[in-house]
Amino acid sequence: MATCPRCKGPLTDGHRCPRRYSFVALEIAAYAIGGALAGWLLLFVFDPQNQLSDDAVALAIGAVAGIAINRFIRA
Ligand SMILES: [Zn+2]
């Protein structure tokens, strides 16, 4: 069987190279950071005095949501 010149995998019909792990990890990190910023911004919009909650919680929830969105898009 022919091998793909780029990923060395079996070159079947409709072959698509698997994405490199480091790139995937970077992408997830980017989504996590974006999600964290979005969560923090939302918190700021809805709670400008920061009375309700913790910045860290908003950042964490945003990061998790960002990763979930990334996984959902890529699934
Ligand atoms: Zn390939």
Description:
This protein is mainly α and 75 residues long. The protein has one domain (21-74). Helices cover 61% and strands 0% of the residues. The chain has two helices and no strands. α1 packs across α2. The longest helix is centred in the middle third of the chain and has 26 residues, at 21-46. It is rod-shaped and about 65 Å long. The two termini are 28 Å apart. The model has no long low-confidence stretch (mean pLDDT 86). The structure holds zinc ion. The site of zinc ion has 6 residues, from loops. Zinc ion binds at residues 4, 6-7, 9, 15, 17.
Summarize the structure.
It contains two helices and no strands.
Keyphrases for this structure?
2 helices; binds zinc ion; 61% helix; rod-shaped; mainly alpha; 75 residues
Chart the SSEs and their pairings.
Blueprint: H1 21-46, H2 55-74
Bound molecules: zinc ion.
Report the average pLDDT across residues: 86
Rg value: 19 Å
Low-confidence stretches: none
Number of helices, where a helix is a run of at least 4 consecutive DSSP H or I residues: 2
In total, the number of strands is: 0
Tally of separate domains: 1
